[in-house]
């Protein structure tokens, strides 16, 4: 019995003396997991990782052939793989932009810059993805009450998704503007269609963007995805997310309207689903107060990147020529 007691005390003393060492060692040398690099400049696993460079970040996941280095105002430059990168344009539709539907002039103002950026992405071999409101009857039936109320014109459910928006009168020569007493030439009357439903005129891209979308899709450089929530990436999966997965996309650039609503919502969901997110400020706009844009800019800057198209156009144009 004395021997057993001695051994018990001895073991307790030994364990007590070893415990602090084990504790310290565990904090000094974190246990590495299978598939996770010991290289402190690698963030992620063997299939999905960033590499911290001496100046900036490599987002190519090791696929550096034909990669492009893009300057960014903060945390840059970033190196991207064109075969895994895309430009996402959100909600640049007649409903949100056309003046006959009380569309936002700030949204209309970014259209030329948006088109220039789209051309640069296409020329560099990177796809342009359009994700817009395009509701079906099934979507409307299953829409949450909060969404139905939020898109009501008079605080009744009768003027929300799927309601008839009536006729609009536009110049025959330019359907992107409203007809007035000073617009030249004859006018035409267009059925705006049911609110934000697929195929309706009010849900089409505004002005020259519609032509860009039609031609881009026909040429195979652009892809169009309907959505039924603010985010084009919400839930378990969406048409755009399925396409991104099927085509091994990792790095997404975002623009459109409204920056603090559908743009930010789509960007956030993409971030939660492990995509690299870059907000392009000068192809984004909103009807909200300026502090809303400041909030988005601040938060995107924490875990992603913000750029202006003028920052990255030279590198994209140079890539298209190589």
TrEMBL record:
Protein name: Isochorismatase hydrolase
Record carries keyword Chloroplast: no
Keywords: Hydrolase, Signal
Residue stretches making up the Isochorismatase-like domain: 85-293
GO molecular-function term, one example from the UniProt record: hydrolase activity
Similarity-based family: Belongs to the isochorismatase family.
Signal peptide coordinates: 1-24
UniProt cross-references to PANTHER family, sorted A to Z: FAMILY HYDROLASE, PUTATIVE (AFU_ORTHOLOGUE AFUA_2G08700)-RELATED, PEROXYUREIDOACRYLATE/UREIDOACRYLATE AMIDOHYDROLASE-RELATED
Pfam families for this protein: Isochorismatase
CDD domains according to UniProt: cysteine_hydrolases
